[in-house]
Amino acid sequence: MIAKIRIAFAILALVIASAFLIPLQLTLLWLKHPWRNHVPRTWHKVALWALGLRVTVHSSLENRRPLLIVANHSSWLDILVLASVADVTFVAKADVRDWPVFGNLARLQRSIFVAREQKRKTQDQANEIAERMNAGEVVVLFPEGTTSDGNRLLLTKSSLFGAATSAVAQSPAGHVYVQPVAIGYTKIHGMPMGHYHRPIAAWPGDVEMLPHLMGVLETGALDAEINFGAAIEVTAATNRKVLAQTAEDEIRSLLEELLHRR
Protein backbone atom coordinates (compact mmCIF):
# COMPACT_ATOMS: atom_id res chain seq x y z
CA MET A 1 0.00 0.00 0.00
CA ILE A 2 2.82 2.40 0.92
CA ALA A 3 4.56 1.63 -2.38
CA LYS A 4 1.38 2.44 -4.33
CA ILE A 5 0.99 5.75 -2.50
CA ARG A 6 4.65 6.59 -3.22
CA ILE A 7 4.18 5.82 -6.93
CA ALA A 8 0.98 7.88 -7.14
CA PHE A 9 2.65 10.81 -5.39
CA ALA A 10 5.69 10.69 -7.69
CA ILE A 11 3.55 10.59 -10.82
CA LEU A 12 1.40 13.49 -9.59
CA ALA A 13 4.48 15.61 -8.79
CA LEU A 14 5.96 14.96 -12.24
CA VAL A 15 2.68 15.74 -14.01
CA ILE A 16 2.30 19.06 -12.15
CA ALA A 17 5.94 20.05 -12.80
CA SER A 18 5.69 19.07 -16.45
CA ALA A 19 2.43 20.93 -16.96
CA PHE A 20 4.17 24.14 -15.94
CA LEU A 21 7.73 23.66 -17.18
CA ILE A 22 7.17 22.02 -20.59
CA PRO A 23 5.12 24.92 -22.06
CA LEU A 24 7.70 27.32 -20.62
CA GLN A 25 10.55 25.37 -22.22
CA LEU A 26 8.76 25.18 -25.58
CA THR A 27 8.34 28.96 -25.52
CA LEU A 28 12.00 29.51 -24.66
CA LEU A 29 13.07 27.13 -27.42
CA TRP A 30 10.90 29.00 -29.92
CA LEU A 31 12.39 32.31 -28.79
CA LYS A 32 15.91 30.81 -28.68
CA HIS A 33 16.20 32.40 -25.25
CA PRO A 34 19.31 31.54 -23.15
CA TRP A 35 17.09 30.28 -20.32
CA ARG A 36 16.22 27.27 -22.51
CA ASN A 37 19.39 25.68 -21.10
CA HIS A 38 18.37 26.34 -17.47
CA VAL A 39 14.74 25.18 -17.25
CA PRO A 40 15.51 21.42 -17.63
CA ARG A 41 17.62 21.58 -14.46
CA THR A 42 14.55 22.53 -12.43
CA TRP A 43 12.53 19.66 -13.93
CA HIS A 44 15.28 17.15 -13.11
CA LYS A 45 15.45 18.36 -9.52
CA VAL A 46 11.71 17.86 -9.13
CA ALA A 47 11.97 14.41 -10.73
CA LEU A 48 14.67 13.29 -8.30
CA TRP A 49 12.68 14.65 -5.35
CA ALA A 50 9.62 12.74 -6.55
CA LEU A 51 11.63 9.55 -6.98
CA GLY A 52 13.16 9.91 -3.52
CA LEU A 53 16.71 10.08 -4.86
CA ARG A 54 19.26 12.27 -3.06
CA VAL A 55 22.40 13.55 -4.81
CA THR A 56 25.74 14.32 -3.18
CA VAL A 57 28.45 16.14 -5.16
CA HIS A 58 32.20 15.80 -4.64
CA SER A 59 34.44 18.51 -6.11
CA SER A 60 32.86 20.71 -8.80
CA LEU A 61 32.11 21.26 -12.43
CA GLU A 62 34.99 22.79 -14.40
CA ASN A 63 34.31 26.51 -14.97
CA ARG A 64 36.48 26.86 -18.09
CA ARG A 65 34.99 26.48 -21.55
CA PRO A 66 34.58 24.84 -24.03
CA LEU A 67 33.82 21.79 -21.90
CA LEU A 68 32.98 18.15 -22.60
CA ILE A 69 31.99 15.92 -19.67
CA VAL A 70 32.74 12.21 -20.05
CA ALA A 71 31.01 10.00 -17.49
CA ASN A 72 30.28 6.37 -16.73
CA HIS A 73 26.77 5.22 -17.58
CA SER A 74 24.76 2.67 -15.63
CA SER A 75 21.18 3.96 -15.72
CA TRP A 76 18.67 6.41 -17.16
CA LEU A 77 18.92 7.93 -13.68
CA ASP A 78 22.39 9.23 -14.62
CA ILE A 79 20.73 11.85 -16.82
CA LEU A 80 18.51 13.10 -14.00
CA VAL A 81 21.40 13.12 -11.55
CA LEU A 82 23.85 15.08 -13.72
CA ALA A 83 21.23 17.47 -15.11
CA SER A 84 20.05 18.32 -11.59
CA VAL A 85 23.41 19.85 -10.65
CA ALA A 86 24.47 21.52 -13.91
CA ASP A 87 23.00 22.97 -17.09
CA VAL A 88 24.12 20.35 -19.58
CA THR A 89 23.31 18.90 -22.98
CA PHE A 90 23.52 15.15 -23.56
CA VAL A 91 24.76 13.13 -26.50
CA ALA A 92 22.23 10.33 -27.05
CA LYS A 93 21.74 7.46 -29.46
CA ALA A 94 19.52 8.36 -32.41
CA ASP A 95 16.80 5.85 -31.45
CA VAL A 96 16.25 7.65 -28.13
CA ARG A 97 14.56 10.43 -30.12
CA ASP A 98 11.59 8.10 -30.79
CA TRP A 99 11.21 6.70 -27.27
CA PRO A 100 7.83 7.42 -25.63
CA VAL A 101 8.06 10.25 -23.06
CA PHE A 102 11.85 10.06 -22.71
CA GLY A 103 12.37 10.97 -26.35
CA ASN A 104 10.23 14.08 -25.91
CA LEU A 105 12.13 15.06 -22.77
CA ALA A 106 15.45 14.57 -24.57
CA ARG A 107 14.36 16.86 -27.40
CA LEU A 108 13.18 19.50 -24.91
CA GLN A 109 16.64 19.43 -23.37
CA ARG A 110 18.18 19.90 -26.83
CA SER A 111 20.02 16.58 -26.73
CA ILE A 112 22.38 15.82 -29.59
CA PHE A 113 21.27 12.62 -31.32
CA VAL A 114 23.94 10.55 -33.04
CA ALA A 115 23.75 7.41 -35.19
CA ARG A 116 26.95 5.69 -34.15
CA GLU A 117 26.54 2.86 -36.66
CA GLN A 118 26.54 5.31 -39.59
CA LYS A 119 30.27 5.80 -39.96
CA ARG A 120 29.88 8.26 -42.84
CA LYS A 121 28.12 10.70 -40.51
CA THR A 122 30.67 10.42 -37.71
CA GLN A 123 32.49 13.65 -38.59
CA ASP A 124 29.26 15.61 -39.11
CA GLN A 125 28.02 14.46 -35.70
CA ALA A 126 31.33 15.34 -34.07
CA ASN A 127 31.14 18.77 -35.67
CA GLU A 128 27.65 19.35 -34.24
CA ILE A 129 28.91 18.50 -30.75
CA ALA A 130 31.90 20.80 -31.31
CA GLU A 131 29.65 23.68 -32.39
CA ARG A 132 27.51 23.35 -29.28
CA MET A 133 30.61 23.22 -27.05
CA ASN A 134 32.11 26.29 -28.67
CA ALA A 135 28.79 28.07 -28.22
CA GLY A 136 29.29 27.72 -24.47
CA GLU A 137 27.14 24.64 -23.82
CA VAL A 138 28.42 21.90 -21.53
CA VAL A 139 28.05 18.63 -23.42
CA VAL A 140 27.86 15.24 -21.67
CA LEU A 141 29.13 12.11 -23.40
CA PHE A 142 28.89 8.54 -22.10
CA PRO A 143 31.94 6.97 -23.79
CA GLU A 144 31.10 3.38 -22.85
CA GLY A 145 28.37 3.56 -25.49
CA THR A 146 25.98 1.49 -23.34
CA THR A 147 24.93 1.00 -19.71
CA SER A 148 26.73 -1.16 -17.16
CA ASP A 149 25.60 -2.91 -13.98
CA GLY A 150 26.74 0.08 -11.91
CA ASN A 151 29.57 -1.82 -10.25
CA ARG A 152 32.26 -1.20 -12.86
CA LEU A 153 33.30 0.86 -15.83
CA LEU A 154 33.14 -0.80 -19.24
CA LEU A 155 35.76 -0.15 -21.90
CA THR A 156 35.29 3.25 -23.49
CA LYS A 157 35.15 3.87 -27.23
CA SER A 158 37.97 6.18 -28.31
CA SER A 159 36.09 7.18 -31.48
CA LEU A 160 33.56 9.08 -29.35
CA PHE A 161 36.33 11.39 -28.17
CA GLY A 162 36.59 12.74 -31.72
CA ALA A 163 34.10 15.41 -30.67
CA ALA A 164 36.73 16.94 -28.38
CA THR A 165 39.42 17.03 -31.05
CA SER A 166 36.93 18.46 -33.56
CA ALA A 167 36.00 21.17 -31.06
CA VAL A 168 39.67 22.17 -30.76
CA ALA A 169 39.80 22.98 -34.46
CA GLN A 170 36.82 25.33 -34.06
CA SER A 171 37.82 26.83 -30.71
CA PRO A 172 39.07 30.44 -30.85
CA ALA A 173 41.33 29.66 -27.88
CA GLY A 174 42.84 26.62 -29.60
CA HIS A 175 41.91 24.24 -26.80
CA VAL A 176 38.95 22.61 -25.06
CA TYR A 177 38.55 20.82 -21.73
CA VAL A 178 37.43 17.25 -21.09
CA GLN A 179 36.30 16.55 -17.52
CA PRO A 180 36.06 12.92 -16.33
CA VAL A 181 33.10 12.34 -14.01
CA ALA A 182 31.88 9.30 -12.10
CA ILE A 183 28.28 8.67 -11.01
CA GLY A 184 27.74 6.05 -8.33
CA TYR A 185 24.65 4.73 -6.57
CA THR A 186 25.82 4.21 -3.03
CA LYS A 187 22.98 3.90 -0.52
CA ILE A 188 19.48 2.51 -0.21
CA HIS A 189 17.34 3.74 2.69
CA GLY A 190 20.49 5.25 4.19
CA MET A 191 22.43 1.96 4.21
CA PRO A 192 25.48 1.25 2.00
CA MET A 193 24.46 -0.32 -1.30
CA GLY A 194 26.64 -3.29 -2.30
CA HIS A 195 27.00 -5.22 -5.55
CA TYR A 196 23.80 -7.14 -4.88
CA HIS A 197 21.48 -4.11 -4.53
CA ARG A 198 23.11 -1.77 -7.07
CA PRO A 199 21.07 -3.20 -10.02
CA ILE A 200 18.04 -1.55 -8.39
CA ALA A 201 19.46 1.71 -9.72
CA ALA A 202 21.48 0.35 -12.66
CA TRP A 203 19.70 -0.28 -15.96
CA PRO A 204 21.63 -2.71 -18.20
CA GLY A 205 20.41 -2.88 -21.78
CA ASP A 206 18.52 -6.18 -21.40
CA VAL A 207 16.18 -4.80 -18.71
CA GLU A 208 12.88 -3.28 -19.84
CA MET A 209 12.39 0.39 -19.04
CA LEU A 210 8.93 0.40 -17.42
CA PRO A 211 9.56 -2.40 -14.89
CA HIS A 212 12.83 -0.76 -13.90
CA LEU A 213 11.15 2.63 -13.44
CA MET A 214 8.46 1.04 -11.28
CA GLY A 215 11.13 -0.70 -9.23
CA VAL A 216 12.86 2.61 -8.54
CA LEU A 217 9.54 4.22 -7.58
CA GLU A 218 8.65 1.36 -5.24
CA THR A 219 12.06 1.40 -3.58
CA GLY A 220 12.58 5.14 -3.11
CA ALA A 221 15.27 6.55 -0.79
CA LEU A 222 18.27 5.98 -3.05
CA ASP A 223 21.51 7.95 -2.80
CA ALA A 224 23.60 8.92 -5.82
CA GLU A 225 27.01 10.56 -5.69
CA ILE A 226 28.86 12.52 -8.37
CA ASN A 227 32.64 12.67 -8.36
CA PHE A 228 34.04 15.43 -10.59
CA GLY A 229 37.63 14.84 -11.68
CA ALA A 230 40.25 17.30 -12.84
CA ALA A 231 39.71 18.60 -16.37
CA ILE A 232 42.09 17.53 -19.14
CA GLU A 233 43.20 20.24 -21.54
CA VAL A 234 42.91 19.14 -25.15
CA THR A 235 44.89 20.86 -27.92
CA ALA A 236 45.60 20.16 -31.58
CA ALA A 237 48.57 18.05 -30.49
CA THR A 238 46.46 15.74 -28.28
CA ASN A 239 46.17 12.14 -29.46
CA ARG A 240 42.54 10.98 -29.37
CA LYS A 241 43.36 7.45 -28.20
CA VAL A 242 45.65 8.70 -25.46
CA LEU A 243 42.94 11.15 -24.38
CA ALA A 244 40.37 8.33 -24.26
CA GLN A 245 42.64 6.09 -22.18
CA THR A 246 43.53 8.90 -19.76
CA ALA A 247 39.85 9.78 -19.28
CA GLU A 248 38.88 6.11 -18.87
CA ASP A 249 41.51 5.55 -16.19
CA GLU A 250 40.36 8.65 -14.31
CA ILE A 251 36.65 7.75 -14.48
CA ARG A 252 37.43 4.25 -13.20
CA SER A 253 39.43 5.68 -10.30
CA LEU A 254 36.69 8.20 -9.46
CA LEU A 255 34.02 5.48 -9.55
CA GLU A 256 36.00 3.11 -7.34
CA GLU A 257 36.45 5.94 -4.84
CA LEU A 258 32.67 6.42 -4.67
CA LEU A 259 31.75 2.76 -4.45
CA HIS A 260 34.28 2.05 -1.69
CA ARG A 261 33.59 5.22 0.27
CA ARG A 262 32.13 4.56 3.72
- Net shape: globular
Structural class: alpha/beta
Instruction: List how many beta strands DSSP finds.
Output: 9
Task: Report the sheet-strand fraction.
Answer: 15-25%
Rg:
18 Å
- Low-pLDDT runs of 5+ residues are none
Largest sheet: 9 strands, mixed
- What is the distance, rounded to the nearest whole angstrom, between the alpha carbons of the first and last residues? 33 Å
Oligomer state equals single chain
State the helical fraction: 40-55%
In short:
With 262 residues, the chain is of the alpha/beta class. The protein has helices at 2-31, 39-51, 77-83, 102-108, 122-134, 162-170, 209-219, 240-259; strands at 53-58, 67-71, 88-93, 112-114, 138-141, 175-188, 191-192, 222-228, 232-235. It has one domain.
Write the layout of secondary structure elements.
Blueprint lengths: L1 H30 L7 H13 L1 E6 L8 E5 L5 H7 L4 E6 L8 H7 L3 E3 L7 H13 L3 E4 L20 H9 L4 E14 L2 E2 L16 H11 L2 E7 L3 E4 L4 H20 L3
Parallel strand pairs: 1-8, 2-5, 2-6, 3-4, 3-5
Antiparallel strand pairs: 6-7, 6-8, 6-9
Helix pairs in contact: 1-2, 1-7, 2-3, 5-6
How would you explain this protein's 3D organization?
By secondary structure, this protein is of the alpha/beta class. It is built from eight helices and nine strands. Strand 6 (175-188) and strand 7 (191-192) form a beta hairpin. The two termini are 33 Å apart. The mean pLDDT is 89.
